[in-house]
Structures are given as structure tokens and as C-alpha cells.
Amino acid sequence: IGLSGAVTAPDSPIPSASLSLRFDHPATYAVLDLGRVTLGRLTATVNGPAGTVIDIGWDERLLDGTLRPLPYRGSLFSTWNQVDSWTLDGTSRTLTTLDARCGRYLVIAVWGPGPVWLEEVQVHAEGYPLTQQGSFSSSDPLLDQIWQVGADTVKLNMSDAYADPWRERGQWWGDSFVVDQVNTSVFGDTTLLRRGLLFMNTAFEESLAPALAPHNNNHQMLDYAMLWVHSLASYTTRSADANPLLNETYPTLRRFMDDLAGFENPGTGLLDLPQTHWSETAYIESLAYHSRYGQSTALNALYYGTLLQAAQLAAQVGDEAQAAAWQQQAEAVRSSLNELLYVESEGRYLTNIYQGMPYPPTPQAQAWALAYGLPPEGSSDAVAAALVELLSPDPSQPNIEIYGFYWVLEALGQSGHDTEALELIKDYYGRMLDLGATTWWEWFTSDQRPAQALSHGWGSAPTWFLTTYVLGARQVGPDQWLVKPSFDGLDFASGTIPMPQGMLQVTWHAGACTAGGVRSLDLQIEAPPGTRGQVYLPLGALLVNVDGIGTGNTEMSLSEGEHMLTFEMRCTP
């Protein structure tokens, strides 16, 4: 083939200029590398003999170890399933697709006598009109790269809905929940969340616990439906105009919570599910086989958290009696779960109890319990240690998958074990980068599973974690923010998060440990107009100076504008 024009720039997902191709022989193909997975449309002007067939296929990978396209493996393995085909009529034509396609590689195959010219070949990326506003930089370039890959992946999973771009392009709500959490750190959009919440609200009319919307396809997944409640609470936190949506969806919320209570074991008050396919009960995460049935720690931890969120939403609409009832029910679930499934002598949670038999502890049980604040007072450190110990030390042989890592990171962040979380992020996500990942995969081992996506937003949790727990910045109300940085594991971190009023900027520096076992720290906050927030400093801060005024507080309220805090801490042993 002949080739002229510009090829993809190394740091760009789309060509920087048009490309021209000439095919001189029948049954000739070209493979274009876009640099990373892209959702978009190809356009080109084509000239060639009548009867010539042009096939253009998209995919995320090539045949392993080659620069050739994957072979077609039959209808049960629909690789290169995003293919368009044209038959030329001998006149000059402009080719384009009816819908956006997704992949990193395009194969252009020409079948005919030739010659055939494709001129002004371009790929136009498509997606929800977003501008990245959030940022993160630190003293560790690997973490900075991991943060940005997560931002790029999430943007690819935001089109007219929260949906993976390559495979079924479905709005699964578990996936959507994680993608939306990352969105809060990167883009600050609430429109897609609102639209998705309403789609799910409608889906509840057809299913007790829908997993995806608008086409639920008869799924019943209690965990995905419970995450809808958490997303609804998140929307009310971030939007100043949340009341109309909450009033519209609250009747659905009440029906769902009543239906959910129907799965409780009458003797324990815990959700107790049959052992069947996850599409009929719960998913939890990709390797959580034993957490999907019986009286599961992970599922009931989520149930506890859902009851608390539902109580908060009930209070917002003025249903105080129901808010109190759900709050009381939540405490009963927590008490029963700790009594039946927490092994105090080991500092670990059993995975489940099924037909009277307990299943040994797994990482999922520890992570979900910590993430939703279940451990008895004083036992969180032991459960966090158990979580880290139970996790596979080999990222190529994981025992919790990339979707579940959101709850692992939430668990370690909630319990103050940020250093361990950073090491896990670098080990697991650094491996994917070493293997050539440019967007995060569906599984940690998706490079070995051709049917799995290499552009799945549900694996982008490190971006959210680094902003929320390491930088320490988060939005907690329509005009309120919280800054609670972690100074362990890094020398400095700086970044921004988007809020409706503007950007919240946070920068901190941690000095070296002195001979006396003390280090100095500086924290700078620039808050957007019309906002206010809380700052929490670690326990053990020896001196705090806020905007030039000395104080001994480690918790304080600040308003809009620039603020500088300096303090000292004992070095961590």
C-alpha cells in the first residue's frame, strides 16, 4: 500500500492531520494505531472501481505478539464486532459511520481489483462535552500518571450515559457509581448522573432491583440497586437544585427499601440470599464468588450503608419517622453482622454464613466492612491489617479484581492506611502500565482475556482516591468542601477539584524528619467564591498557624479565598 500524510501523534488519541492511503492489490489491508482507545468516527474520501468492497473494523487490541489484526473467531467470540462495510459504485464518495465506534486499532481491508484511494482519512473523537478541570501532581511521577490515565478512562466512559464504550455500551449502575465518583474529582459534572438516576428510577417499575438502565434485561442485582441509593445521596450533596429529583425518586426509594427488607433472615435481620447466578442476586465484584449468597459480610455492609443513606434522604424530604426507622434498622444490621460474622480473636470478618456454615475470611469481606464503617470501636486497624494480608501480593494473580479495588481503597482511606493503599496502587496499576495500558482494563488480567474491555471506567478508583484521601480534597455540599490531607508516603501533593462556584485548589508540602523526630508541614488552600469548608489535620499536630495567626486547633472552619496553614507533627515511626 502507499501511505502519505501525518500519522497519530504519540500523545494524542486521534491523528493530528489527515492521512492518505492507496491500495494497489486485491485483498490488501492496513492497520492504524490511534495511540489509545478512542470512541469516534472515521471519515475518508474514497475512489475506486465499482464493486470494490471496503471493510473497516475497530478493536482494542491486535493479535498477540504481532502487528496484525485479530482473526475472526466465530459468532460466539465477536472480536472485530464493530465493522462497517461499503460496496463502491465507481464514483468518488465520502465514507463515515452511522454511529460512533470504539477501539485503539482500525483495520481497513480492501477487496477488489484496485487501485483504491482513501484520502483525507481522519478519526474524529466523540463523547460527552467535558473539559478536565480537576488535577493532581505529587512527588511520585508514577502516581501522577496513574491519576491521569484514570481521568482519560472515565472521560471515554461518559457519552450520552455512563457506559463502557467498547462492548455492550450499557449503563450498569455499579460501573456508573465508580465512574461518577471519579467524575467528582476530574470533571464535576452532575447532568449525566441526574439522567442516569432517572433512567434507573424508571427501571424499578419493571424490576425489584435493576442492575442497568434504560434496558435492564431482567437482571436483579441487589448491590447495584443499592448503589443507586448512594448515587442519589451523592447528587443531593453536589447539586443545589436536588429537591425536585429527590421528590420524584423518593417513592421509588421507599418501595425498594421495603422490598430489600424482604430478603432479611427473620432470625438475624441480615440479607440472606440463595446461591444462584449473580445476575439474579448480587455481583459485589468480579472475584467475590462467596460474597454473593447466604448472609454475606460484603453485601450486608453495603446494606448497612444503604440504610444510612436512605435515612439521610428521608430526612431531606421531611419524612422524619421513616428516617428514624431506617437509622434504627441500620444499627440492628451492624450489631447482628458484628455478632455473627466478626471474629474478634482474629480481627477478621467471615465471608458469609450459608445454611449454617461459615466461609473463611476473604479480602472482600474486610474491604466492604471497613468501607462502610462496620468494625467495632478500636478494631479498624486489625481489619485493615487483615485486608492487606489477605490481598494477593502478585498483581498478575489477583484475588480481588479491579472493580473491587474501589472498596479496597475506600476501606484503607477510611481507616487511615493511606501508605498501604499507595503501595497497592503502584503495584497493581503500575503493572498494567508496564504491559502497555493507556486506559484502565475491565480486569487486572484483561490482557489475557480477549473478550474483556481494555477501556473500562470501573477501574479508575485510584484517581478518586489520590484526590480525596491523599490530596485530601472533596466536595461535601453544594457550596461546601472538606480538606483532610494524608501526609504519609509523599513529600508533596497539589491539585484541584471542580465545584459549581469554581475550583478548590489544595497544595501541601511535608518537610523532612528532623533529628528530634519532628517534621514541618505547609498546607495552602484556595477556595472558590461563595464557598466554605472544614479543614481536618492529623491527630498529633503540635502547632497550627492559620493565615499568620497561631492556634492549637486541628479542626477549623474556613471561608472562600486563600489560606495558609503551617504546623508540626511527630514523625511516623
Task: Write structural notes for this entry.
Helices cover 31% and strands 27% of the residues. The chain is globular and about 80 Å long. Helix 1 packs across helix 12, helix 2 (173-186) runs parallel beside helix 4 (222-238) and helix 10 packs parallel to helix 12 (461-471). Residues 2-15 have low confidence and may be disordered. With 573 residues, the protein is α+β, with helices and mostly antiparallel strands.
Spans with pLDDT under 50 lasting ≥5 residues?
Answer: 2-15
The best one-word shape is: globular
Quote the beta fraction: 25-35%
Tell me roughly what share of residues is in helical segments: 25-40%
Question: How far apart are the termini?
Answer: 64 Å
The biggest sheet amounts to:
9 strands, mixed
**What's the helix count?**
12
Q: Which structural class is indicated by helix and strand composition?
A: alpha+beta
Q: What value does the Rg take, in angstroms?
A: 26 Å
The mean pLDDT is: 92
Topology:
Elements: E1 2-5, E2 19-23, E3 28-47, E4 53-59, E5 82-87, E6 93-95, E7 101-111, E8 116-125, E9 135-138, H1 141-156, H2 173-186, H3 191-203, H4 222-238, H5 243-261, E10 295-296, H6 297-316, H7 320-341, E11 342-343, E12 348-349, E13 352-354, E14 357-359, H8 363-371, H9 380-390, H10 405-414, H11 418-434, H12 461-471, E15 473-477, E16 480-483, E17 492-499, E18 502-510, E19 518-536, E20 541-546, E21 549-551, E22 555-570
Parallel strand pairs: 16-19
Antiparallel strand pairs: 1-2, 2-8, 3-6, 3-7, 3-8, 4-5, 4-7, 9-17, 10-13, 11-12, 13-14, 15-16, 17-18, 18-19, 19-22, 20-21, 20-22
Helix pairs in contact: 1-2, 1-12, 2-4, 2-12, 3-4, 4-5, 4-6, 5-6, 6-7, 6-8, 8-9, 8-10, 10-12
